C-alpha cells in the first residue's frame, strides 16, 4: 500500500488555509490583531534564533494548548487574535493550520516561507 506523499498533504492543506506574507504578518502583529506562533522544535529555536514576541508552541503540543477543554490549554492562544503559525519553511505550519481549522479554530493562518522567509525579508530575529 502506498502512502500519500507529504508534499501532497501540504499542498492539500495549503489549498484550504490562509497563507499570509511576512510583511502582512508583521503589520498585524504591530496592530495587535495577530499572534505569531512558532511551532518549531526547541532545538531549531536554539540553533536558528527566534522571532521577537512570537509564542512558542511546539508542534507536538499545539492542539492540546489551543483546546480550552485540555488540561494543557494556554490562554494566550485563545485571546481572539489571529494565530499565525510558522515553522522553518511553511510545511509543518500548513498541516498544523489545517488541523486547527478542522478543530474549529477560525482565526488561524500560516506565514508564507516560514522562519526562513521572515528572516530573508529582513524582519527581526533574536539569536
UniProtKB/TrEMBL annotation:
Transmembrane segments: none annotated. PROSITE patterns: RHODANESE_3. GO terms for molecular function: thiosulfate-cyanide sulfurtransferase activity. Signal peptide: none annotated. SMART domains: RHOD. CDD domains: Polysulfide_ST (cd01447). This is Molybdopterin biosynthesis protein MoeB. It comes from Pseudoruegeria aquimaris. The lineage of its organism: Bacteria, Pseudomonadati, Pseudomonadota, Alphaproteobacteria, Rhodobacterales.
Amino acid at each position: 500500500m502506498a502512502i500519500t506523499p507529504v508534499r501532497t498533504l501540504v499542498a492539500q492543506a495549503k489549498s484550504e488555509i490562509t497563507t499570509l506574507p511576512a510583511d502582512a504578518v508583521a503589520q498585524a502583529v504591530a496592530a495587535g490583531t495577530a499572534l505569531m506562533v512558532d511551532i518549531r522544535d526547541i532545538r531549531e529555536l536554539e540553533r536558528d534564533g527566534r522571532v521577537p514576541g512570537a509564542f512558542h508552541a511546539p508542534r507536538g503540543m499545539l492542539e492540546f494548548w489551543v483546546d480550552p477543554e485540555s488540561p494543557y490549554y494556554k490562554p494566550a492562544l485563545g485571546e481572539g487574535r489571529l494565530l499565525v503559525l510558522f515553522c522553518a519553511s511553511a510545511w509543518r505550519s500548513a498541516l498544523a493550520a489545517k488541523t486547527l481549522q478542522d478543530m474549529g479554530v477560525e482565526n488561524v493562518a500560516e506565514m508564507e516561507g516560514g522562519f526562513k522567509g521572515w528572516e530573508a525579508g529582513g524582519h527581526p530575529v533574536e539569536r
